[in-house]
Amino acid sequence: MDILVFFFCWATCHTPNLIIASLSSSLNYSVSSLLVRWYQERGIQRDKALRRTLLRFYPLFLCLAAGSMAGMSHQRVSTRGRCATLLLSLFLLSVAPRAANSTINIPSKLKSPPVITTQPKSVTTFSADDISLTCEATGNPPPEFRWVRDGLEFDPSKDPELSVFRDSGSFSLTAKDGPIQQYQGRYSCYAMNELGTAVSNEARIVTANTPTLQKEKKINKKVEEGESVVLSCNPPNSTVAPVIHWMDKRLRHIQQNERVIQGRDGNLYFSHVTVADSRDDYTCNTQFPSARIIVLKEPIKLTVTPSNSVVRNRRPQMMRPSGSHSSYLVLSGQNLELECIAQGLPSPKIQWIRKDGVLSESRTFKESFDRVLRFVNISESDSGEYQCTATNTQGIVTHTYSITVEAAPYWIKEPKSQLYAPGETVKLHCKADGIPKPEVTWSINGNPLSDIDPDSRRSLKHGVLTLKKVELSDTAVYQCKAANKHKSILVNAYVYVIELPPQILTEDGLMYSVAEGQTTELACETFGSPLPNVTWEGESWGALVANPRMSQLVDGSLQINNASLNDSGQYTCTVSDSKITITAELDVLTAPILDFEDKRGKPATLSCEYLVDSRQDVPQVQWRKNRQKLTESSDSDKYMIDESTLIIPEVEEEDEGVYTCEVITTLDMAEGSGSITIVASHHLSSENPPSPDRPDPPTQVLMTEPKDRSITLNWTPGEEHNSPVIEYLIEFEETGSERNEWEEHSRVSGSSHRAFLSLKPFISYRFRVIAINDIGKTPDRNPEGVCSDSIDPGTLVITWKELDKRSFNGPNFHYKVMWRKVLGSGPHWHSKDVPSPPFIIKDVGNFSAFDIKVQAVNEMGEGPEPKSMIGYSGEDYPLEAPLDVGVLLINSTAIKVTWAAVNRETVRGRLQGYKIYLMYYGPEEGHLRQENLVGQKPKNVSVVITDSNEEKKILGDLQPYSHYKLAVSVFNYRGEGPQSEPLTFHTPEGVPGPPSSLQLDSPSETEMTLHWTPPNQPNGNLKGYILQYQQVDNEDSLVQVEKIREPITRFTLKLDPRSRYRFELRGYTSVGEGQPIIREGATTLDAGPPSNISIMAGETSVNLTWVSKERQRNVGFFIQYLKKDGPDKWQRSEKVNSSQSFYTLQGLQPGSQYRLKIDFNSTVWEKEILTAGARVMKVRDGFVTESWFIGLISALVLLLLLLLILCFIKRSKGGKYSVKEKEEGQIDSEARPMNNEAFGEYRSLESKLCTDDALDDYANSNSVQTEVIMDESLASQSSGVRDVPDPETLENSPLNPTTAISHHGLPNSAALLD
């Protein structure tokens, strides 16, 4: 079953363009060649003899192509399998269409205004870089140049450090040991001659310090399994964004995936960690390409402890960016990256949407495992809101991004340089757009229009500058400038007022050649003032205005699009209102299409024919296969090259590919290409009947009935090979799609030879038709991405991208892996069937080259013959270090390192380059000598990486007067080899850095004491300091210089108290003076307390504010205050400083009047105030507040209390509540009755202490009644009498308290108390 492939471009138009190319795989191989056009303008256009030779040879070439195709058809029908010799001719034809020129070509004999041809470009430079600003211009007379920096005139010729180019405005600065900050700024170049002044675009020079890494502590992180972790990189500060890589100690990249990802800030983010993440060499490598340095950070140790319980899943949370919303402002045309890194367990999946529209498929790409949404060439239409959603099984989290796209100014319409005759009206159109809207301004010869005297003939309206009735004096260069907050752009256009007759500058009788279907231009360049008007006519076309494929350009040239054979002929260009004409001849050529076929194993010859200008040397011919150079010795006797002919003695499967012939001269290069495709051949014999085989592919595929959304396919069946076709399968592929896979469209029966296809609009389709019989279908394609991914030494790992199941085409699908050594193994292939990648082969040697290929196989058979690739076995660490390492001191901050190239056999891999380890041990001091470096650790180690072909390197930004060690090693993909023996050197003395600090202290009105600290980088033996000071407010004052010849840290000056001074202090060594530290200041004037005090009174406090006078010395004082209706005694506040400007006086009384004053030698300020609030009235003193009265009252109260206590006690013991026995007969015989005399005595005592009248309230109280009830109860229990007495009896009964007597002669109340 073979395949026929054709291409079809479908669009929404009613007459779509159809491009059909068929490649028949029934051929042993087929070659498609290109007619190569090699441009030699003067050689072909003006050498008519060469042109006639070419035209005579061209029909012969077409005849050869036609004969080849006829022979090909004959072979297909009647002589299948015949042997033929292949001749592939790649014919190089010289054609030279003239490029359009939008500028005016003024003849050299006339004067011309200046035109800037090379604009200066902005640069960011480091101290070790060269600085160059280029400004080139043309004009007659030759223009002179001047520069403006930051709005001020700048003459580079007066700076001895700058080199100015002759006859040019360009200048450069060679890298040196010294500051370059003084060259930072915005530059504009002016080119001027007597006809005007042109102005360049503004260019910036930005100077930056070389990034350095400060010493940092080692970081050890310990986390539990399942947690999220962020490893911070913290790259050195720099104006240039670094390139950051996370690597291990073997310089292998840390593997990143959905769980582990590097953020745009350089940090390494772990969504959750596993035990396998534990390692001690997470290293952030920071590369600054423009500074040509790599800074190695300290390795980070991460320890992940296993969880004691089951690791719990966690819902997603945003790691970067934080929060729920972020905003971005970006300029149109730039790239933007939105980042979305989330933590969680399991690792969240990321999805991106546009909330207010649809994501642009052409400008947005998802990278870093969907963690980054990248916008390429962003436009205003991309402004809006975007959302990132992180999802796992536990939940979701979102983040919204608001993008605002603005635009730097860009031109919508630019003014054009032009020649004008006196009296004409000139209109210069200048229109720009941007976000925000740019402001458009005009200048003449570099001078703003607002600074030029008005002219009634000149007007400006809506961005159009109009000049009426121009004169010769109006000749000038006009500048239009558009600027907004993002950028400014400028365009020059000259107005040249001159009177000249019209003329045609293009040569008459030029001959042009163009391939059919291409675009060409016939030149007719004119000159004159006013501008001549031209018209074109064709030999067979007449006037060309009505031809839609032909258009006349602004410069007069005729442009012909989609050239056809009928366009060949002579064309005439005529200047209107004159008899000036030229003619041009056009030939439209058709490139031949050559098809060949031949047997596998037979020779093939590829011939490269070319024509070059006879004045050129013999060109060099270079053959390439798949863009790789071919030589006779590249693969034994595989290829033979005889001048411009490539011979393949035996065509094999691996010869399939694209062959290119390159013809190279000293001026130009041209090439032509053709492809060879190898497929299986079929052998037929009358003696041995053929067995059933797969059918040949259909041929003569035609597309008919094209409609808006459908076409009809027709084809002719191929050879069935003794097995009838069951069905035809139509498959399609969307060209330009990311999927790049064939998809099934439809199937039709084997008896049908046409199919109706429904299509979608505005999509480019690629179709193929497959014939299927009972033999079945083998895989129709092989896996892609075949490569070697070998890491371990001596191991070859072959991997590939697995095919989709839809491409298996049958059961028992697997892969056939084939390999052989490139050198020394011969043609034999080793093979192995495997179900999936990767396939590992061991013990194959270090870094050995192998031919590898992978073929798809199923039960029906093998797929197409795969293409072989070159792969290498794993590398091992290099064995040896570079030899002959040397150091040459260039100056105090730069060295030149040299070494000998390493033996490639000891590299044991692909040599990637060399690493120079520069170890800094500190400045040369008394305790640090060269002999004391043994055993000491360097303070800083920097690594510089070079290319593999370098054997020397200049290192800059070293510290002067310091000790260093240097070692060099070699590295490959596997890692780094041993370092060379450390080479010790020290840099010479240099100029010091600026002092670390400078403080000004004024002890009096005429003195200023400067206190400073020495430079952090003395860069040598500090001899002393140079102090320069000058009055700032007096331009005529001289700079005073004090040379301090010892390294002290303070100095006192006598100064004018009325002036302000600028101080510059710098250190110096024996080499010279260093950089200064600059301060401005003035002496402090003597003063007193403030007198301009503002007051705001409260209830208990008052706020005092004042303004301290400039330059006045701080004075301490007290605020005194006196209450007017209080004691005549002044009180004072705490000490107040005049520099405070504010003070709150507290402790006052509301509604009171106070006197405030400040005494300083004399009373300098006094004020009366009234506090807010109601006044507190004072209570008049009386005897009730006297102590003797309070003591008397207290004694009386205490005495009364004691008397009451005694009354209660006596009352409770009295007979008032005694109980008499109810029945006298039941009295215990042992009781001793009490006579009335005894009881009467008790009552008498009671009446003396507490009378009944005095205690009536107490006798009738509830407490006494309660006691009576209790006594009655006890009495009834002790008497033993249960009968209740009658009232008369009760009246005289023992219960009467006046007569009742207990058994023991005591009151019952007393018995109760017992």
From TrEMBL:
The chain crosses the membrane at residues 1188-1209. Residues 114-207, 211-294, 316-404, 409-492, 502-583, 601-677 form the Ig-like domain. It is found in: Cell membrane; Cell projection, Growth cone. SUPFAM superfamilies: Fibronectin type III (SSF49265), Immunoglobulin (SSF48726). GO terms for molecular function: cell-cell adhesion mediator activity. The keyword Cell cycle does not apply. One of its GO terms (biological process) is axon guidance. Residues 1275-1314 are annotated as: Disordered. It is a single-pass type I membrane protein. It holds the Pfam family Ig_3. Residues 1290-1301 have a biased composition (Polar residues). SMART domains: FN3, IG, IGc2. InterPro entries: FN3_dom (IPR003961), FN3_sf (IPR036116), Ig-like_dom (IPR007110), Ig-like_dom_sf (IPR036179), Ig-like_fold (IPR013783), Ig_sub (IPR003599), Ig_sub2 (IPR003598), Immunoglobulin_dom (IPR013151). Residues 697-794, 881-990, 994-1087, 1089-1182 form the Fibronectin type-III domain. Neural cell adhesion molecule involved in the dynamics of cell adhesion and in the generation of transmembrane signals at tyrosine kinase receptors. During brain development, critical in multiple processes, including neuronal migration, axonal growth and fasciculation, and synaptogenesis. In the mature brain, plays a role in the dynamics of neuronal structure and function, including synaptic plasticity. Belongs to the immunoglobulin superfamily. L1/neurofascin/NgCAM family. This is Neural cell adhesion molecule L1.
